[in-house]
Prior knowledge:
GO terms for molecular function: 1,4-dihydroxy-2-naphthoate polyprenyltransferase activity. Keywords: Cell membrane, Membrane, Menaquinone biosynthesis, Transferase, Transmembrane, Transmembrane helix. Belongs to the MenA family. Type 1 subfamily. The structure is a single chain. The chain is an all-alpha fold. It has helices at residues 4-10, 17-32, 38-66, 78-81, 86-111, 116-129, 143-164, 169-192, 194-200, 205-233, 250-257, 266-288. It is globular, with a radius of gyration of 18 Å.
Amino acid sequence: MATVSEWIEGARPRTLPNAIAPVVAGVGAAIALDAFSWWRSLLALLVALSLIIGVNFANDYSDGIRGTDEHRVGPLRLVGSGAANPKAVLRAALTSLGLAGVLGLALVALSGYWWLLAMGALCILGAWFYTGGKKPYGYYGLGEIAVFVFFGLAGVLGTVYVQAGRVSWDALGCAVAVGSFSMAVLVANNLRDIPTDIESGKHTLATRMGDGGTRKLYLTLVTVPYALTVLMGIWHPLLFISFVTAPLLLKPIKAVGGGGKGRELIPALRDTGMAMLAWAVLSAVALAI
């Protein structure tokens, strides 16, 4: 039976910035539209956190029963390591995704934007079928696109819409920026796992692009938010403050661009996620002001 600390590690707390950053950025864009609602923002955050924890447990379960994690070099996987019973991890995944669904339903009901139920359902289905089902799309190189859509576009724009009833160009810019950061986190993760994914037959975008192409993609993705900062800064000069987050990317850029492999790339995931969260916080403050 897995210990409490192993369950916490299995939930992959280092991925939480991928859920927090889009809501924070969305809150800043909502304030800029004079439409901030603290309780709607809180519900949106709880939905995002429940969803990403559910995704992590679902991936742990699905990859574990397929044997994909048998030679994993990254953080602990509960099923793959044998620390937890697969059924227990499945229950944790379904509970987290179910909680995301209930909280999302409450948010939609209280805000009155019922069409958002369809988006919420797509998010939950996307979370499960990333590595679940007979033909998981994560095994066909589509994981990065899903992350961009769900934790970029849907996360930011959904947070703004449930408060303002509309979105803005600022919100779209933040959505693309956060989505690019989230993609970069997954690209770094899949870059690390190229050897073991090839061995297990998991065809991620990284295995398709190869080592060199994947490293170039990462470097491109982490420049997108700052390019958007320049563009958005024309109308909101305070946004240029988010450039102070760029030094947080120096180590991951060195690791990815310098040919780091295996465990050398693990800190790159953490640091890229923290850069994303810091960028979202400072951008939200700038838009709010």
